[in-house]
Amino acid sequence: MLVKTILAADIGGTNSRFAHFTTGNGSSLEMVETKWLPTTEAESFVQLLEQLRDSSFTLSPDKADIAVIAAAGPVEHNSYCAPPYISWDIDLGRDRSGKLPDNSYLINDFVAQAYACRSPVGLSARAILPGKIVEDGVIGVLGAGTALGKAMLVPVPGQGYLALPSEGGHAAFPFVSSEEFSFRKFYQEKSGRQHITGNLVVSGRGLHYLHWFLSGEELEPREVTARFTPESETLAWAARFYGRACRDFALEVLALGGLYIAGGVAAGNPEILTHENFQKEFLNSPTMGHLLAEIPVFLIDNQDSGLWGAAFHGQQILQKG
Predict the structure, then answer these.
(1) Which whole number is the average pLDDT over 195-218?
(2) Between the N and C ends of the chain, which has fewer C-beta atoms within 10 Å?
(3) What angle do CA 219, 303, 199 make, to 5 degrees?
(4) CA nearest neighbour of 218 among 234, 237, 230, 202
């Protein structure tokens, strides 16, 4: 295959990341350059693309051989997404003309994270818990930042990998003790929300409410994590909750190919995953503890992982012709 250019994008509520990749010469995938733009400074997706074109980014968006756009929200009809934390939507049928190549694709941001597991950043991910990867097993990926994202990666014989989206972060979080039920009631009263989901617990805002409940201090998430010590009660609870979210998802998708953790909360605070409560909770299953002990857990802490995943997906499409 001749060298082809890939425009990868990861559209987030705060920043929109873009990258120019090249692929060719077998299975190589090379990142040429990246560009970050403030999402809120654009009034539409089209305007964001115009800002990219007018920046120092050397690849004109419409000149790429393929474009893969990852966005934080459910993708409808493979071409439309209304990200919940952005004031505008993305509609490739409406927005692509003259701005992107005809060969353009819109995917969920955690679908991109799933593909990233097979990219260079996934292959160099940090090992958190030991285990044995089953080569044809399903790979699970989840991660917390503003919310909790989930997806899975399924190997397809002779076809590479297929990533499947999930909106499981919107499911109710499983609290299991009287203390935890008290935290749920506190969260409900302070936030005005009755449906306390994984998005609200295993996330930055979850740290805010958890520390408030345990200490009486109402702090921003960054202030909370700045106070983490090995003796921190907030850290101990956060590790237990994160371990539970990972355990349940690993069982739901039977992640024998490994469980990969992405997202800013874990990447910025790996002590959540290395705390003894994380492993204890991840393995805590009276029926499936033996199976969980065989599932390796990894941390992807590269902040460009979504771009690598989008580019990997684009590479697979180009290879299939």
Answers:
(1) 97
(2) C
(3) 50
(4) 234
